[in-house]
Amino acid sequence: MSDTNSGRPTWAEIDLDALASNFRVIREHVGSNVRLMAAVKANAYGHGAVECARHLEREDVDWFGVALPEEGFELRSAGITKPILCLGGFWKGQEAACLKEELTPVVYRLDMIESLDRAARDNGIVADVHVKIDTGMGRLGVRSDEVAQFCQALSRFQHVRVDGLMTHLAAADDTVEDFTKAQLARFELAVNTFREHGFSPTCIHAANSAAAFAYPRARGDMVRPGGTLYGFSRDVLPPKIATLPLRPVMSLRSRIMLLKQVHKGEKLGYGGSFETARDSLIATIPVGYGDGYRRALSNRGRVIVRGKFAPVVGRVSMDLTLIDVTDVAGVSLDDQVTLLGQDGELSITAEDVAALVGTISYEIACGISNRVRRTYVGS
Q1: Is the distance from CB of 372 to CB of 10 less than 8 angstroms?
Q2: DSSP 270-304
Q3: pTM above 0.85, yes or no
Q4: Which residues are catalytic?
Q5: Residues 6+ apart with CB under 8 A from 177
Q6: CATH assignment of 250-377?
Q7: Contact partners, residue 193, CB within 8 Å, separation at least 6
Q8: Are the C-beta atoms of 367 and 293 separated by less than 8 Å?
């Protein structure tokens, strides 16, 4: 079993073989001439950044993408040696640490470039950066209509080298392609403008998971898969993409901690939001919204016990959830409960749960809290 350690029997099982398989699917699809940056930000979308990065490094990933320098520091402390891009840049005072740990920051403001240039000069080095262009996402980046002025201002910095140019596509998973094509046209114009001003970036990248599969034009020198790496597809890729052999990497499991017979007409949970319509067998499991099992699944979600679906009844509370196991033959104390993942022929995916609560698979996986122990299976 994956929960043999003492303690609460609620755990997230991470299948490293599935992760490697997804990586290879992406690699095969985009071609060997395109580098792969594995997005391991937000603790690898809840899967465990260090363990996932170690496994992907063995698969010869080219880069890792993190949101924060702190995430990059954690990877370096764990012995990760591949290049790391800090997608959100850095905060004031982190320049020297980024240089020491050889993190490449994304930059989009002249003042941050100036502070990095100063830190690089003090250390006698030239710091590589990737400049982000805002082509329509509206978040971070140099506005695409201000690129020429930005390039002119960059000429005064002698200790910063523009090694990469990037943008982020806002609607690559959409069925309407005009907006994405317009973003790509703006980005290509920005890349040409940088080159006209004497810059020679070696890495041009625009493609997230959706664009890596749907827009070959967006791949450039590198793609940045995130969701597809962890086995998400239905709410990540546009409908025109044929079904891919991607495998979910995370399962969430628990065990029955209490079984009780409940009479017809009894109310269960906070607010008595569920009333039994029959004499029922109700199980309590030690997982709740404090673990990332969403409260919105109250009276709506379902789990798998002994190869059968069992509904969530009553409100999901912070630490505990009730399920109706009346129809599960032979159910026993300590039986395994699958909240995400496969059990026999049945499965519950992050996309399934996301659709129920009105969000996306990314948020479901990222929301599994740190108090849920991660266990790793596979090679």
Answers
A1: yes
A2: GGG-EE-SSSEEEEEES--GGGT--GGGTTT-EEE
A3: yes
A4: 41, 270
A5: none
A6: 2.40.37.10
A7: 147, 148, 151
A8: no
Name the phi and psi angles at 25, rounded to 5: -60, -45
Length of the chain in terms of residues written: 379
d(CA 152, CA 54): 40
Can you state the percent helix, strand and coil of the chain, rounding each to 5?
Answer: 35, 25, 40
Give the fold, CATH level 3, of 34-225.
TIM Barrel (3.20.20)
Amino acid identity of residue 247, one-letter, is R
| Residue the block writes with tokens 């020679």 | 200
Q: Is 220 exposed, middle or buried (0-12, 13-18, 19+ CB in 10 A)?
A: buried
Computed over its alpha carbons, how large is the radius of gyration of the chain? 24
Ordered by start, the domain boundaries in the chain are: 34-225, 250-377
* 96-136 pLDDT per residue, tens: 999 999 999 999 999 999 999 999 999 999 999 999 999 99
Helix (H) or strand (E) holding 115: helix 110-122
User: Which segments of 197-343 does DSSP mark as H helices, in order?
Assistant: 209-214
Count of CB atoms within 10 A of residue 260's CB?
Answer: 10
Q: Express each pLDDT in 265-295 by its tens digit.
A: 999 999 999 999 999 999 999 999 999 999 9
Please tell me the distance from the alpha carbon of residue 83 to that of residue 327, in angstroms, as a whole number. Answer: 52
- Amino acid of residue 339: L
Contacts of 72 (CB under 8 A, 6+ apart): 64, 66, 84, 86, 98, 101, 103
Distance CA 8, CA 241 (A): 41
